[in-house]
Each structure stands twice: as C-alpha cells, then as structure tokens.
Amino acid sequence: MNNMNLLLMIGVYCSLLVFSSRYFYILDIKFFGKKIMKALQLNVLELNYSFEQMVYFYSLPSSIPVLKYADKNDISIGFDYDSLLFRHLKGIKIYVSHGNEKVVLAYLSANDFRLPSLDLLLEEGKLDEDSYLKVSIFKLIHPNTLEEITDEVFKQMQVGRYKNGVDAWVRVDGDGSCQHTQTLI
User: Fold this and answer.
1) How far is it, in rounded angstroms, from Cα 29 to Cα 146?
2) Whole-angstrom Cα distance, residue 141 to residue 28?
3) Which of 98, 116, 127, 138 would disulfide-bridge 121, Cβ 3.0–4.6 Å?
4) pLDDT per residue over 98-108, tens digit each?
C-alpha cells in the first residue's frame, strides 16, 4: 500500500512538473523580456524584425490542395520546445490544415529570429547573448508578432516567396552604362 501511494505521488509530481514547465517558462520569458525592455527603454511592439530566416518546406504558391485552397483561418502556429521537462523554445512551426489534411509549411528558429535594434545593442555590449535570446523569444511569442507571421505566411501562400510587389532589374546599355529599372506589379 505504501509503495502504491509513493508511486502515485511521484507520478502526480512528475505530471505537475511536465505540465507546468511550459507555463513557467513562458512566464519567465515575459517577465525577463519586460524587465530588459524597460531597462533599455524599448517597446516590444516597436522592435523591427524580418521574416527572411523562415524556412518554407514547399514552393509557394503551391498546387498542393491543402495549401492551394487554404485560407488564413487554416494557418496555425505551434511552439517547438527542445525538452519535455525543462522547456526551451527552439522555434515555431507554421501549420496549414484544410479538410482532413495538415502539413507543416514553415519553420522559424528562435536563434535565427533577429532584431536589428538588439543586434546593435549586442554589438555595443549593452546586451549579452542570453538576454538577447530571451528578448527575441519574448518578441517572437507576442500575439501581435504571431498575427503578423500568420499574415505574412498567408501572403506568401497567395503570391509566392519572393514576389513583394516590385519587379526590379538592371539593364546594361550598349555603351556600358547601367540602368536600374523598377516596376510595381
């Protein structure tokens, strides 16, 4: 009987640890991110970032039905952690589901989610690498950022990865002079 109670208590403790670790990790990231942002006198909503490091697993736009017929509501974002017990966000996975199918469309690593203003502070020595990563993750998991990522992924699904509305090229004339031309699409 005592062995059963001990095993039950160990099971409850492990379950509690596993299921609460994500909550406390996110809480730590938010608390630390806000603290650093306040110390640096920055606003998380004003930090610029780029989607360039996002890795797409399919060419876009795609003729694959789940991607071709999906709308914005079919896009979801999941957090990718490196451990079940001591959680650490590795990145985000962007899923597209339509009908009964669900595919992983893209992945954005937390280490590759760079913020130019923080890069400058890191270079100046005002921020260490660990703090940079925590603030970067804080920005990455912010609801506004996740919404912007969803919008960007949907746009990429519609028009393609490198179509940004501008078609640009350089023309070399017969006399060797270069003409830069830009056309709005």
Assistant:
1) 16
2) 12
3) 127
4) 888 999 999 99
